[in-house]
Amino acid sequence: QWQLVESGGGLVQPGGSLRLSCAASGFTLEYYAIGWFRQAPGEEPEGISCISLNDGSTFFNETVKGRFTVSRDSAKDTVYLQMNSLKAEDTGLYYCAATGGLCSWQWYRPGEYRFWGQGTRVIVSS
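-> structure tokens emitted (126 positions)
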């Protein structure tokens, strides 16, 4: 069964950092683009970032540029979302999602992705 599993969420104070992980089960991430989405309570998922694992190209939502980075550990077949300088508005349920090939020009749309994880919760609060 093909699955994505996120981990690394938690409670962090404003200004702090967290690193989220996205691991695949049943398939390899090598030929996919991985998107990260954030869903605040009562809102639709918002595209945060996308990384094309074929060529390493990355895309970010303007609200997280300069604070978040995305990377991949090929040996562990895991994608990471490093989140620094966290703000209260970064609070939400974070999902990773996979689509074949490269990040599309509409990478921020949930409908672009085929496989989704169950999410990991991030709470930024003092």
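The chain is about 0% helix and 50% strand.
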